[in-house]
Amino acid sequence: TGYLASMSTTIIWMDEGTLALLFGMMVLVALVSTTGVFEWCAIRALAMSKGSLPRLLILLSLSAAGLSAFLDNVTTMLLFAPVTVELAAILEIDPIPLLMSEVIFSNVGGTATMIGDPPNIIIGNMLSDQISFLDFITNLAPCIALCIGPTAGFLLWYYKEELSKPIKPVDLDELRRRYEISNPVLLVKAGCVLGNVLLLFFLHPLHHVDTSWIACIGAISLLIVASPHELHHVFTHVEWDTLLFFAALFVMIEAMAMMGLIRAIGDVVAAVILAAPEEAQLRVALVVILWVSAIVSGFLDNIPYTATMVPVI
């Protein structure tokens, strides 16, 4: 017999914690982006590179990784990519090596924290009783630190031909004037609010307030002190299609659970693990989950895969 879910049941199926956390961080990032700080970072990286293209690639990539750890890697690249393309046009170089390096480092850096990557956000909210914001950092940050060196070395080797080409001399003083911080007052306000939000994330084991509430309260606070009369302009920068995608995804996962598909997938995974000797089952479970996740995410979107596998695990 079929089961027709009511509207109230469908709404309950949506993970409001994940949606609220995404919304709050989107509003914070949208307000920060209007200050011109991302353009300012790109020009400072260009100045620090001293005309060296490999050094510029590393500086931009590290900037993308650092920002992605605390601002969500998808949003970071949406803001960083246009700046990088414009910078490459000024220098008359191919933007592909810079963009690809930023994308890779953005994924690497975003993995380090709970709010840096959509799958991490899903895991953190669906398993909020077992995993805290600090747990993500203590367990993942050391691995990320080990990945940075080899990743940078590979990128420098892979793009060595493109990076060996000379770049056009530019007037840094003119670029600094053109891409200066457009709203320093808002940047200070946004920095204070965002800093407090991140601090409260770290202190979650003490206050036990859900991260989604912290993000939303931070977003509302910044809206009040920054631009209370221009809310519609800020909300146009919110990725409503992404929020709708996540809402629909959570409904689909709950529907799959109602049909028994989640349990069936769990039974298959459990059968593979239990087939191993008892003393090796933990290692087998880690290897199976690790490689299946890596291979499947290479061909399918990692967000629906994560949302499907969290209930299984």
Protein described:
By secondary structure, the protein is mostly helical. It is built from 18 helices and no strands. It has helices at 7-13, 16-33, 37-49, 53-71, 73-91, 96-110, 118-126, 133-158, 160-163, 172-178, 184-202, 204-207, 211-226, 231-235, 240-259, 261-274, 281-299, 302-312. α16 (261-274) crosses α18. The longest helix has 26 residues, at 133-158. The radius of gyration is 22 Å and the shape is globular. The model has no long low-confidence stretch (mean pLDDT 83).
Rg estimate, integer Å: 22 Å
What is the CA–CA distance across the termini? 28 Å
Binned strand content: under 5%
The overall strand count is 0
SSE order: HHHHHHHHHHHHHHHHHH
Low-confidence stretches: none
Average the pLDDT over all residues and give the rounded result: 83
Q: Which term fits the overall shape? A: globular
The major pleated sheet works out as: none
Q: Give the count of helical stretches.
A: 18
Q: How helix-rich are the residues, as a percent range?
A: over 70%
Sheet/helix structural class = mainly alpha
